[in-house]
Amino acid sequence: MSRAFFDCDCHTEGIFVDVADEHPVDVFVTLWNFGKKGSEADWWTRVKWCWRIIREGLLFPANQTVMRHQEAKRLGKHLIKVSEVMDTKEKKWKKTMRKRKKK
């Protein structure tokens, strides 16, 4: 299997990408929402989490999308294109900020 997890900067969400060996034409993309860590939760919050698990079966929800490799490739190309545009905008922004600091 080819697996990768991409963590959000806030560390409360993430994207998990998986390609199963037994069916390599599909790419599984799962969006995760972690919420708070157990050690940060008070007693009442933990009781609510237990009730949520009983009702829904999951504490931290995940949504999964299954896409063919062609669609995954298109997604990858789009992310690269967006990243290149962001790089250009970031360079312009940094240049503007440097000019402002000099003034």
Distinctive features:
27% strand; flat; 4 strands; 103 residues; 2 helices; alpha+beta; four-stranded antiparallel sheet
Describe this structure as you would to a colleague:
With 103 residues, this protein is α+β, with helices and mostly antiparallel strands. It has two helices and four strands, in the order E-E-E-H-E-H. It has helices spanning 43-56, 69-102; strands at 2-7, 13-19, 26-33, 62-68. Strands 1-2-3-4 form a four-stranded antiparallel beta sheet. A hairpin with a 6-residue loop joins strand 2 and strand 3. It is flat. The chain starts with a strand and ends with a helix.
Short account of what is shown:
47% of the residues lie in helices and 27% in strands.
Number of helical segments with 4 or more residues = 2
Low-confidence stretches: none
**Whole-angstrom Rg:** 20 Å
Strand order of the largest sheet: 1-2-3-4
The average pLDDT value, as a whole number, equals 79
What string, H for helix and E for strand, traces the elements in order? EEEHEH
Helix/strand-derived category reads alpha+beta
Beta-strand content bin? 25-35%
Bulk shape: flat
The largest pleated sheet is described as: 4 strands, antiparallel
Beta strands, count? 4
Task: Report how far apart the termini are.
Answer: 54 Å
Q: Percentage of helical residues?
A: 40-55%
